[in-house]
Design brief:
Elements lengths: L1 H6 L4 H19 L6 E3 L17 E5 L3 E2 L14 E2 L2 H16 L4 E6 L4 H11 L2 E5 L15
Parallel strand pairs: 1-2, 2-5, 5-6
Antiparallel strand pairs: 3-4
């Protein structure tokens, strides 16, 4: 899609935001309470602050912890892989833009042994956390504090 947009001298980010805007308008004709939650793609906002006007929240995966995606819930490579801190900081600097206008930020971390740290990091930033394993084969066994 990016190559097609660029081949037609179009900005892929502009086109995606226009698509989201059209989808939102159409959906809200049917249900005025319809929400658009951006999934990942945190850097879409680079140079495009208008994105904040067409989404109702963002859900980001693996800010601090990632894992290899397999069907095996017990795969030890499926969680607790620490992301490079510069990558985490880059994501958070983008997510701060969403928070600054009052949009919710949902965060899915892939941690088991480090679940407590993942929850602490996420809650400390004001994000809404879910900590699980990359397999996503079942609901998390690492519940948030106070659950």
């Amino acid at each position: 899609m990016i190559r097609v947009a660029q081949a037609n001298s179009l900005d892929p980010a502009d086109e995606m935001i226009a698509f989201i805007r059209e989808m939102r308008a159409y959906a809200r004709l049917i249900d005025p309470d319809f929400l658009i939650i951006q999934q990942n793609a945190f850097s879409l906002i680079d140079g495009h602050p208008e994105l904040l006007e067409v989404v109702d929240a963002i859900s980001q995966e693996a800010i601090w912890y990632d894992g290899v995606a397999t069907d095996d819930w017990n795969d030890p490579n499926g969680y607790d892989r620490v992301n490079d801190s510069s990558y985490s900081k880059r994501i958070m600097s983008h997510l701060d833009l969403y928070l600054s206008v009052g949009l919710p930020v949902f965060d899915c971390e892939y941690a088991l042994i480090n679940a407590e740290i993942a929850y602490s990091n996420t809650l400390g930033k004001g994000y809404r956390p879910y900590v699980t394993r990359r397999s996503l084969r079942q609901l998390t066994t690492t519940l948030s504090p106070g659950y």
